[in-house]
Amino acid sequence: MGRKASKLQDLARRAGRWLGLADTPAAPVHTTAVVADRFDAMSWRETYDQAPALRELAEDLGERHDYATDLLTDVFLGAYKTSPQVRERAEMDPSRMVNHQVITTVLDSPEFGELRRETAGDLYAAAMAVLAQAEGLRRMLERAKDAHAQAQRTAQAQREAAEAAQAVSDAVQAAAAAAAEDGTVPADAAGAGTPAMAAAQSPEAGPPPAAPSPPQAPS
Prior knowledge:
Layout: E1 6-7, H1 8-14, H2 16-23, H3 38-50, H4 52-62, H5 68-80, H6 97-108, H7 110-119, H8 123-132, H9 134-143, H10 145-178, E2 184-185, H11 187-200
Antiparallel strand pairs: 1-2
């Protein structure tokens, strides 16, 4: 009859940690740090589309930082909203951790606090405030290059681990569908899960994702 059949519970035990990861609902992640509603988003998009200087700044910063437009969104919202709120780090996409640190630093600065007295609720003034922060943003992003690279690696590792976990889960579900009433899985169906588990345990996939280390605050 070919290779020895396996028990479904043995297969599930071998895949245990990856099944748990695949079954855990993904936490919501955000690519901008300042909390905004759809009206805030529309205000930013309209302002950005109508301001060549903002787009030029995004292009300039984008040469050294992958998510410059998201960062400018945060700075604009920080200047425009009456009481800007910054999300918790755990709510952020790991790749945007540097943006989170930068906007937190900007909002905590006394100078920006003074500027906000003139910009809150004023689209034009908020856009000018973004442009006024250009040199400071360049300096902070330059100092945060290592942290940005780390955040990118963390985000990539999380994506790969989640994909590997899903592949293991799919293989176990396929084995379950082929299992007999006593839980015996045909050898071919049981063997189909082995490559997925091997891939999930490979160095490239890495372990199940952990919380990323915070980047150093730009100073």
